[in-house]
Amino acid sequence: MKLFPALDGAADARTVTVYSSLDEPLARPMIAAFQVANPDIAVAYEDLQTVDIYDRVVAETDAGGVTADFAFSSSMDLQVKLANDGYAQESNVPLSANWPRWANWRNTAYALTYEPAVFIYHKPSFAGLKPPSTRAELIQYLETNADAIHGRIGTYDIERSGVGFMFFSRDQEQYADLWTLVGAMGAAGVKLYSTTSAIVDRVADGRFVFGYNILGSYAAEAAARNPDLGIILPADYTIVTSRIGLVPKASANPDLGRRYLAFFMSAEGQTIMAQQLQIAALNPSVTGDNTANAMQQALGNQLRPVPVSPGLMVYLDQVKRARLIRRWNDALSIQ
Fold it and tell me: What was the pLDDT predicted at 334?
């Protein structure tokens, strides 16, 4: 855990404790701005895996102790489960009433980011060629070039990647020909990874030619550093995921947790997130390219945001999850 002392220097300053799946170095601009606005508050920031955030909040609450004042995680299903199971408290903050309805569950769990699942490609490998921009075009590309690109396609391992599993479960709802696509990826020797960076790095340097269903915020940050990395928002439909923030029921300082949440939702906090963290802002009043507003104006109904609702918990059912993973593995293995 990293402690950021209060800016006013008070030794007895109150401390807001944050559990987050966002790496602490990436989160520093947001923490710094929060402390400028709240110079009397120290921040204790602990970056954790999404499953660990869930487990810690549940275990600490069930033990009768206190837990984080604010929990921020990219695992939408686990965050909604915390809220649904009574481990989060209602947080009425200034922007609650104006937040997009799909992004606010009972003023308890709030989507705070707007992150599309994208295609990525190695630009030099497509010199003079149009890269696939829909899943049907991707199937055709894979089937036509299976031998030439064998072993040079990457996507998430849905058994080990929470965001990969969520994207894929949404694909199953949106795309009737999904299993043909999975079979085509298998025939092209697709490589599976649990982290976004492993896929993005390999496409950026040309080891891979294409990546499927990649978290767009990471891809955008990498593309800003590497001109050979291309990004496509799929034209048939683009799934949009969000990181969810909530104030746990057993928070030691729920007023500070709500203050942190309110800053995260504010125009100032969301602008910092879009411009410095390279994560698209969801606040409807924030303008600029890296915002939900800009994407919605450009793409409209092509975007399919994942609603913050108990429906997210469907695939936490271990039987349903195992069945989907088994079918995925079977489809990939068909050569």
Answer: 65
